[in-house]
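Please, structure for the following, as tokens.
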Amino acid sequence: HVQLVESGGGSVQAGGSLRLSCVASGLSYCMGWFRQLPGKEREGVATVSTLGGSTYYHDSAKGRFTVSKDSAKNTLYLQMDSLKPEDTGVYYCASRYRYCVADPAMWLSWGQGTQVTVS
């Protein structure tokens, strides 16, 4: 089981930026970021394939968020720019040993989550 620890969340004003980090015990083929917005179900934000580098972004994240990884450090990042109040929620990193999917039910390794608040 992959151990994942997120950090970098916090409170920022609208238009600001945050960079989330997720240190993993090891990088799986697919790494991703999910979030749970108030009153909403957990949803995929961005994923990246470790080997091929292919990325996926939720439509709301395109152009504002960038997912990246540092394999040497076993770390996944989510750079979030131009943050909006509607981005407020708990952000989680996750990993899959198989192909990337957006459905959170298909991901078995999760971090504890980090709160992002935009006002």
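The mean pLDDT is 95. The chain has no helices and eleven strands.
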